[in-house]
């Protein structure tokens, strides 16, 4: 591209969270995948005994059987495909004509035979989504591993728990990281449980064309599963042209993952504030105007995805709810860019999440210093139980007023002679199960996975 030429419409200039991580979601990959689906349909026909093997061999040869992923196959005029896709409302219609033009005449009839455009595009998007979801799952699981390591490393390092932005009670840095890990682990598990069904149902979702072509209801019934096998997808239980759960379930799982990553990023951005300083990013950007700054760039990018993702999933649900009749009139079309953008955010946010947690720097001294900002009041919940019986409720309330150091005042009270005030005021003595939570989930019935000798 000449240096003075404008780049393609979207190369990530305004979407830095996904730059370098979304190659699986390009228009070129979607186009290549649609062609793979058309080829796989021919293979499915051969498998059920309806098409001659020579048709599959010739069509695979024309379009390159080894080009599993990558750039659009040769012979496709992409600009023309995009233009002509407007007239029919989807790109499959002109694509079929272009594909047939490249195939020897005796085998052309097997290209797209019996299928409808939605069969091809839905199936292609499932292939694309499956790869992107797996990449997201791996990155999210890696982020969880790093969070678990932080949790164990800092299981006993005391910090202030904050509720409604204010110091509440003592916790540990590790307990907070374990909270991150649990959210990430659950999200990764849900991503791994998704199904990606192929779509093959014909014009009205009845498979009538396939019964006619194969001459057998059993062969037609076997065709969608054969297509799924050829593409490493799940066999559909039934047509889902207007039952859009495969799309909404993917969207929901992606949002759960981005939510979990967003929680981590929000905590890190807050804890990294100059006046708190308990964590900092190991990699990150500076400022164009303020050279002293080290901005939490990865946390910021993840948060940008977390702010957008729920609305994209809501659009998928809206489209699903309006998938009328046997082919949606616009609702289906709204899914394509929405699902891809959500996948794009998830792939990018999860990659940044794994990097963020892998390189996170924790300042234990800063966390310990922040504990003292309320002059011992961080353990006021504990103090109340011990001191109210000795001093009375009013005296205790007066004691907590102000922001001075409680220790000298408590030591001067004759009512408290004999009370181990150092132990009472030590935040490390009021951690509850925080260290155990950091080392492994506490289960009903007592103990943790580690305590029982089991694995997490």
TrEMBL record:
Keywords assigned: Lyase
Pfam families tied to this protein: Lyase_1 (PF00206)
GO molecular function terms attached to this record: lyase activity
InterPro entries listed in its UniProt record: Fumarase/histidase_N, Fumarate_lyase_CS, Fumarate_lyase_fam, Fumarate_lyase_N, L-Aspartase-like
Domain Fumarate lyase N-terminal: start-end pairs: 100-308
Record-linked SUPFAM superfamilies: L-aspartase-like
UniProt family annotation: Belongs to the class-II fumarase/aspartase family.
Protein name (Swiss-Prot/TrEMBL): Lyase family protein
Species: Microbacterium phycohabitans
């Amino acid at each position: 591209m000449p240096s003075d030429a404008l780049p393609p419409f979207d190369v990530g200039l305004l979407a830095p969270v996904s730059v370098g991580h979304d190659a699986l979601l390009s228009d070129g990959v979607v186009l290549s995948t649609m062609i793979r689906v058309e080829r796989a349909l021919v293979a499915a026909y051969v498998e059920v005994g309806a098409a001659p093997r020579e048709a599959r061999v010739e069509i695979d040869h024309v379009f390159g059987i080894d080009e599993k992923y990558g750039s659009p196959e040769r012979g496709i005029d992409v600009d023309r495909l995009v233009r002509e896709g407007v007239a029919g409302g989807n790109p499959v219609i002109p694509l079929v004509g272009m594909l047939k033009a490249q195939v020897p005449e005796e085998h052309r009839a097997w290209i797209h035979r019996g299928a409808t455009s939605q069969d091809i595009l839905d199936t292609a998007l499932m292939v694309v989504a499956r790869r992107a979801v797996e990449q997201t799952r791996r990155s999210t699981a890696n982020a969880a591993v790093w969070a678990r390591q932080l949790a164990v490393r800092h299981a006993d390092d005391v910090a202030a728990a904050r509720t409604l932005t204010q110091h509440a009670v003592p916790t540990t840095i590790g307990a907070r990281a374990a909270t991150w890990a649990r959210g990430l682990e659950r999200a990764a598990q849900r991503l791994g449980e998704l199904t990606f069904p192929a779509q093959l149902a014909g014009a009205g979702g009845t498979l009538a064309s396939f019964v006619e072509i194969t001459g057998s209801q059993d062969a037609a019934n076997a065709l969608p599963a054969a297509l799924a096998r050829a593409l490493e997808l799940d066999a559909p239980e039934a047509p889902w042209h207007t039952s859009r759960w495969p799309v909404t379930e993917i969207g929901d799982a992606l949002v759960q993952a981005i939510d979990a990553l967003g929680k981590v990023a929000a905590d890190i951005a807050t804890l990294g504030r100059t006046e708190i300083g308990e964590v900092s990013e190991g990699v990150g950007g500076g400022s164009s105007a303020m050279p002293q700054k080290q901005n939490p760039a990865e946390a910021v990018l993840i948060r940008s995805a977390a702010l957008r993702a729920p609305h994209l999933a809501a659009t998928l649900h809206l489209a699903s709810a309006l998938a009328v009749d046997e082919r949606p009139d616009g609702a289906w079309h709204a899914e394509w860019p929405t699902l891809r953008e959500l996948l794009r955010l998830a792939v990018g946010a999860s990659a940044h999440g794994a990097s963020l947690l892998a390189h996170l720097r924790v300042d234990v001294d800063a966390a310990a210093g922040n504990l003292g900002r309320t002059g011992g009041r961080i353990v006021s919940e504990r103090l109340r139980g011990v001191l109210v019986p000795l001093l009375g409720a009013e005296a205790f309330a007066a004691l907590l007023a102000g922001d001075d150091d409680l220790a000298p005042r408590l030591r001067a009270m004759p009512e408290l002679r004999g009370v181990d005030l150092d132990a009472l005021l030590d935040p490390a003595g009021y951690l509850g199960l925080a260290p155990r939570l950091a080392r492994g989930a506490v289960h009903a019935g007592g103990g943790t996975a580690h305590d029982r000798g089991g694995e997490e």
